[in-house]
Write a structure and sequence with these properties.
Distance between the termini: 59 Å
Strand order of the largest sheet: 3-2-1-4-7-5-8
Mean pLDDT: 91
Radius of gyration: 19 Å
Number of helices: 8
Largest sheet: 7 strands, mixed
Low-confidence stretches: 240-249
Structural class: alpha/beta
Number of strands: 9
Helix content: 40-55%
Order of helices and strands: EHEHEHEHEEHEHHEEH
């Protein structure tokens, strides 16, 4: 059966909102695509999230679930993208499910105006209504990505839509996981010459984050250092290796 659109959503300790969020998303998807699947990548939840997902899967044939043994946002996204069967993939968050972004992004993909579309919380026209500390953290991270890796956009984390087959080689090149995987995925697409564009989005936090912001910082810095070493040093050296000698004459 042909599937046009796969929606990949990592889920960790979201028992309180997962059923309502997915039900609401299902109600709004008909105008977006007539052929879709929702992949819920549960990763290491310690509450009733998995049971709620299994109940959704039993009641809705469009829903599939994946299980990862530990909390790992990046690994959950990677597994979902690999398992996706759609021509296009949208990576979303369980507390967003912004079908307005879906419609605009799908128009750009279907008309082949972009290979990847980012829903940016910092682009002109966006509205980031999360607590100020989380907004500041997004600004700082993206500033660091621009300074250290030459990132040209305004945001890497959150909503993104793309042609699956065109982005699979980029996925294979990614070396970090957890939250910084989303940034590496976008940056490698950009560096690889793919057409990456941004759409402004409105973000409203529906609940407290399931992972504390301060817990993310050491891991994010460690992964950023690893990524800078890989791209700037190792791959940079390969990019500047001398070519074969020219024949005389």
């Amino acid at each position: 059966m042909y599937i046009e659109l796969s929606i990949v959503i990592p889920v960790f300790n979201e028992e309180a909102i997962v059923a309502d969020s997915v039900a609401g998303l299902l109600d709004r998807l008909a105008p977006v695509s007539g052929s879709f699947e929702i992949l819920l990548a549960e990763n290491g939840s310690t509450d009733g999230t998995l049971e709620a997902i299994l109940d959704l899967e039993r009641r809705h044939p469009e829903i599939q679930h994946l299980e990862l043994g530990e909390p790992n946002y990046g690994a959950a996204l990677k597994a979902g993208i690999r398992a996706a069967r759609g021509t296009y993939v949208i990576c979303d968050e369980i507390d967003l499910c912004d079908t307005r972004f879906y419609k605009r992004a799908m128009q750009l993909l279907r008309t082949d105006e972009a290979d990847m579309v980012i829903g940016s919380k910092l682009a002109p026209g966006s509205a980031d209504e999360r607590p100020w500390l989380r907004h500041l953290a997004t600004q700082v991270l993206n500033g660091m990505l621009r300074a250290s890796l030459g990132f040209k956009g305004t945001d890497t984390h959150g909503l993104k839509a793309f042609w699956r087959e065109r982005l699979l080689p980029v996925l294979d090149d990614c070396i970090v996981d957890r939250n910084l995987f989303a940034s590496e995925f976008v940056i490698r697409a950009e560096r690889g010459g793919l057409r990456v564009c941004e759409l402004p989005v409105r973000v409203v936090e529906k609940r407290q984050p399931t992972i504390n912001l301060l817990e993310r910082v050491p891991r994010a810095l460690a992964n950023l250092s690893k990524l800078v070493w890989q791209i700037r040093v190792r791959e940079g050296l390969l990019d500047h290796r001398p070519g074969p000698p020219r024949p005389p004459g």
